[in-house]
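ok new one. same drill as before - structure tokens go in, u give me an amino acid for every spot. 396 of them this time. try not to just spam alanines like last time pls lmao
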């Protein structure tokens, strides 16, 4: 069978691959601790569970409008009005089978072959891979020397006549960086000046810590509203990853195209999951507060343990639930006679010999780093970091 050229360019998701390897080892009885998955370890809020049962009992188990049930789109509109002071009509909102498919259909509705999209890196693994599927070209802007927040001069230098969009993710996966008000305003002004679209992925917007604050780019610069697609969902904030509900907000005519595109791929998102999401958005605020407090405590634990490790360098994340650290001092050294050639090799050795799963930085377009998720219990964090410390102590 001859495969398409686009599949030859595509790489598998490294985060999912590492998670799958960790699960396979765990199934064999190995004492695996996984820091690879971007998934809260909390249960879905009780109100959402009950709403799902009620939806099943009352027969809400059929096709819904492609864009989502009116009740959910209204709840999302009310959420954005309440949290950001932004007015979106339900007709400007599309509900999909997770934030990832909505990013895909957004790109598919925008990108022609050869169009360029600016992506600050490190960046989530699927941005570039999805762009490749539409024959678009990624223009990567390295943020590793600017606190993992893009420098406006770098962004401006990356703009060409072929620039169609920029993809932003704050709080960031994988670094936990949170973009400031001034940076977002500067990017919005560049988008207005050069007439490109902002794809604004704020799936981790509720997970900010200390004095950090999440800003919505439309909130900062209302003039950019019709050039911005907001991407969000219930997966992270409400611990509902498996329910597969994301949502996108944008200019009405464009969102109609997104809905039509989605209609040819998935039809609608799960009816039962949509009703559960209505309940979560309306009633699960106490659950969010409790979960974020737990993540902030875990962040302090893992940062304290990272301080005890040799070789590595890291910065304090302000959001999401990841730590991102530089392992460049380890590259070329040996563990039990095995050379650590790159970040992938390090992650393989940690998983195979210490049963600790992390994700290599090269998956996020930034080799020489490792991402660990602290969406794990405090006991697992302490044990996992103990094993990593033991591994590093054995490096010659």
């Amino acid at each position: 069978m001859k495969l398409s050229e686009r599949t030859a360019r595509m790489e598998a998701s490294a985060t999912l691959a590492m998670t799958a390897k960790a699960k396979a080892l765990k199934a064999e009885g190995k004492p695996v601790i996984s820091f690879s998955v971007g998934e809260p370890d909390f249960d879905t809020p009780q109100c959402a569970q009950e709403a799902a049962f009620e939806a099943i009992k009352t027969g809400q188990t059929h096709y819904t409008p492609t864009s989502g049930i009116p009740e959910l789109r209204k709840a999302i509109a009310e959420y954005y009005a309440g949290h950001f002071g932004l007015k979106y009509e339900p007709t400007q909102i599309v509900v999909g089978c997770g934030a990832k498919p909505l990013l895909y259909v957004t790109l598919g509705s925008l990108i022609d072959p050869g169009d360029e999209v600016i992506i600050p890196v490190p960046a989530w693994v699927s941005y570039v891979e999805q762009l490749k599927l539409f024959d678009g070209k990624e223009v990567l802007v390295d943020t590793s020397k600017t606190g993992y927040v893009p420098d406006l001069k770098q962004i401006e230098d990356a703009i060409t006549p072929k620039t169609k969009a920029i993809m932003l993710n704050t709080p960031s996966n994988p670094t936990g960086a949170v973009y400031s008000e001034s940076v977002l305003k500067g990017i919005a002004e560049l988008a207005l000046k050069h007439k490109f679209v902002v794809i604004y992925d704020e799936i981790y917007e509720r997970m900010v810590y200390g004095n950090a604050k999440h800003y919505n780019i439309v909130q900062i610069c209302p003039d950019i509203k019709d050039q911005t697609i907001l991407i969000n969902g219930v997966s992270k904030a409400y611990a509902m990853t498996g329910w597969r509900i994301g949502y996108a907000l944008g200019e009405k005519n464009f969102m109609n195209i997104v809905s039509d595109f989605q209609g040819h791929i998935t039809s609608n998102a799960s009816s039962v999951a949509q009703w559960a999401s209505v309940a979560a958005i309306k009633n699960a605020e106490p659950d969010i507060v409790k979960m974020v407090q737990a993540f902030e405590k875990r962040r302090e634990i893992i940062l304290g343990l990272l301080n005890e490790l040799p070789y590595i360098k890291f910065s304090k994340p302000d959001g999401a639930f990841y730590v991102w650290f530089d392992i460049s001092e380890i590259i070329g050294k040996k563990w039990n006679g095995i050379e650590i050639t790159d970040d992938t090799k390090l992650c393989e050795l940690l998983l195979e010999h210490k049963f600790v799963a992390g994700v290599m930085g090269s998956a996020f377009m930034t080799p020489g780093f490792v991402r660990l998720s602290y969406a794990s219990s405090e006991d697992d964090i302490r044990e996992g970091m103990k094993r990593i410390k033991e591994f590093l102590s054995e490096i010659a």
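The two ends are 47 Å apart (CA to CA). and btw The longest strand covers residues 163-169.
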